[in-house]
Amino acid sequence: MDINSDRKDVLLIGVLVIFAIIVIKLFSIQIINSEYRESAQNNALKFETRYPARGLIRDREGRIIVGNKITYDIHVTPYNVPEFDTLEFCRIFDVDTSYINERFRFYKANRRKIGYQSMTILKQISGEQYNVFVEKGFMFPGFEGVPRTSRTYNYNAGGNLLGYISEVDQDYIRKHPEYRSGDYAGRTGMEEAYEEILRGQKGYTIYLRDAHNQIKEHYRDGEKDVAAVAGKDVTTTIDAPLQAYGEKLMRNKVGSLVAIEPSTGEILTMVSSPGISTDKLAEINKYYNEIVSNPYRPMYNRAVMSPQPPGSCFKVVNALIGLQEKVVTPANRYSCNRGFIVGKLKVGCHGHPSPLDFYQAIQMSCNAYFCHVFRNIIDNPKYGSVREAFNKWKEYTESFGFGTKLGTDIPSEQAGTMPTAERYDKLHGKNKWKSLSIISLSIGQGEIGCTPLHLANFAATVANRGYFYTPHIQKDTPEMPIDERFKERRYTMVDTSYFKEVIKGMQMAVNGGPGSTARVAQIPGITVCGKTGTAQNPHGDEHSVFICFAPMDDPKIAVAAYVENAGFGATWAAPIASLLVEMYLKGEISPQRKDLENRITSTSLMHKVRVKKK
Amino acid sequence: MTPKAVLNKKLDWVLIGCYIFLVLFGWMNIFSSSLGDAFAGFDWQAKYGMQIIWITSAVIIALFIIYVIPARFYSVFAWWMYAFMILSLLAVIVMGKEINGSKSWLAFGPFQIQPAEFSKIFTAIALAALMEKFSFRFTNRLDAISAFAVIAVPAVLILAEKEAGLALVYVGFLLAFYREGMTPWIILSGLLAIALFILTLVTSPFATILIFIGMIVLYVSFHSRNFIVNSAIGIIAIIIVSFLPRLGRIEAVSGVFNTFSPALWLTILTVPVAVFLIIRSLYRKRSDHLRGALVAYLLGLALIFSVDFVFDHVLQDHQRLRIETLLGIKDDPMGAGYNVHQSKIAIGSGGIIGKGFLHGTQTRFDFVPEQSTDFIFCTVGEEWGFFGALVVIICYVALIMRLYNSAERQKSRFARIYGYCAASCILMHVVINIGMTIGLMPVIGIPLPFISYGGSSLWAFTILLFIFIRLDYEGRQ
Predict the structure, then answer these.
(1) pTM, whole model, 2 decimals?
(2) CB atoms within 10 A of CB A126
(3) Which chain A residues are within 8 Å of B389, Cβ to Cβ?
(4) Structural fold of domain A240-608
(5) Beta bridge pairs of residue A529
(6) Which fold has domain A47-78+95-235?
């Protein structure tokens, strides 16, 4: 015995207190609590997930672009499956017997782990097959169908814009822990961007299960069940028939076609060609490998992800900057001797009358004229140095959105590229460059890369006479209002009064007399304003570019068309853009333009595009 | 009488009786839960078959310990055995086999051994050998440090094997330390820290700090000359302060007030006062209760503010979920709470007298996971009901109290300390395991002594118990 021997009693009291607590708790759950007494009738709970219907995607008029159809997943509880007619089962569902046998070997090998759980054995079974299965259900105890929704597409349009949904994989679940294996999630395009709105909320039904694992009844009459909440619909600004028509025009061509409503910034059409057929989108798992190995990269949304030189369309930007900086006036004339020649430097031009004034220069797309304008901007003594003037010029272009992310709600939007003074320092030496070194910027060549969305947005800016709304694809509805930033006018640094001058030039480019570059874009009864572009590139033929808007005095639509390696802007991009405008404004193509439409839709330019072999 | 008869008479038959009852009763429950759908001939491969082998071998081991190995063996070889145990724990970390996410098994052909289960025996022996010395005092810093090191080394190694539950059992040795003269404040502050941790999680840091201040006030005024007045003033002050968060609603001051959380305001206001009082008491050079309480207050504040960090960054995901479900912060009967939910249904469905042997449904049909090892108590609760569970608990209480009492009576310090250690180990296992199955503790996977299926666990507890029976017998001679 020593001094601490009384501590034994403290320990003994502690032991008694702890065990008393345990006994009280046992008493409570075994005798007092009714929740567990319910389970005293040999029951256990079975949670069955209720999947919500996914929200629909509608176009601007409320037409359903992406709908749902009911398909069934076939679940099996291996524990409850006796010998069954595998051949008949496979015949109903049109699957290989080896697959079924393989699954059952797996269940057998893991039977301890699986226990009484049910496993998904077949996915996305059609309603017809499911009905046959239900009729013969007595032959297949242990199997059951669980309704799921899968996607249907009412227009074969906008495949890569809409995106697809697919079952989540382990990687996805790790990043999004609220998902469970078996759930579907939008993986690209709008399905991804609006996943949280579209997906709804899962619910579950609780069943009581007896000791023989037979489901007996609803647990507490469904009091604890949670109903699934259907996903909300998303309304897009897309005009579905127009989108389909745009895709028809762009078929067998590589490039994109973007149409914006200037008065709202709503995107009416966004085609990236080649796209994904919606048939394949619905069964993405089957076609996934084919789609990702396609060398033309149909998953790639060129309209927002592919920056390219804008070509002569950019002359309009320089014209506006020149006017604002007061280094050119509409009356200014510059002569053009088949090009702009200073010393050894020559920027070639095509044959046209000379000299030209401001309007005619836009009308006939004179390279020399805009070389002069650009030199006037960059060599403006007001700024003291080429560098300062260049930075000012860059600031102007950025106010139009070029070289920046516009901030649309379309996933993966790219900023494009605009050259920086530092870049030229590197190329030519610190401050050793001058206006002539960067003269190709005057005609939209060189270090400029802008996406078709930038160009369409520019067309909309001109149509609005000096401002634009951030282009967006979600329609403003009372149920789902869009972000306030989409409702703000964004003014450029050029005064609105100058826009009428370039619009006059663009009007003449389409509707003027001889020498007009874009006469092919004329639409009977509608005044279209446009500007062609022919963007040189080192990878083959020129890209064919065209921007336009119409009608001139009350613009309803602004379009940019970009057809890769197709040739002159007037040959492909201008007809495509103008046909789209005509379809939108008139609802049909006038008879005298039917031949043009035929030529466009029946020609394939795919062979002209060089692709990287994988 | 023959020597053997003398020996048999002097054995502690109460302990042995409890042991036999628990092991046999355990086997019946393992039989029931591992039987499967129907009894189709005796299967030696099934768990109930294997357990017969474990029980038989455990009995042989027990006989060997009682009749062959003298008590002196343990005190002489204590440190050799301790070193061997550390080596085998290290070996597991290097070349162990991973089962169920923890790398704590050594494979010898078809057999697997979990050294962590055995380590507590050798730790108990080593502690007994260390503290047996007559000069050993917990007030001596070196002595105290070496005692803590003896339990810390294996505990850390076991933690490295991801067997957090088995490491937690080592906390039980503190009870033996307490008996041997360690200040109770270490255990009390541990309990206080756990209480503050849980309180912060289920209420808020602000409320926790207030309650904590209340405890400090009561403690300090208890030691002051005027308990009633001082504590009344303190409590009224706390009640007034508890309206502090309302300041955020008053327009005039809400701007300033909302720059910090209420808990932070409380800290900012009280810490300087506490620090001032501590420094003042240091100058006065007399130890008073106020200083200790204030230091405890500062440490407690640090704990309260680190709760979120510990919870979010130190604990692993599954541990966090288990604590959240235990405290009712998250209700997730299909996820982290599944085990406990099913386990409570099984036990709760047993009612007063249970469903009868082999008539349990929850446990026999795989609803409860790990039903023959960590969750074996579910089978007890379901098939034998409240009475069966009560009998098992009474048996454990009898065993543990008998061990404590008997340890206290030992003439040899070695036997006494060993007895306290063994009793505390068994106590920790039983409380954590049963607590887990009925939802009083978070899910911590450790076996129920003598009852759970498994060779390592049964052998380990057999050895732990019978060494003491042998020590006790020699002590009575």
Answers:
(1) 0.57
(2) 14
(3) 26, 30
(4) Beta-lactamase (3.40.710)
(5) A549
(6) Penicillin-binding protein 2a (Domain 2) (3.90.1310)
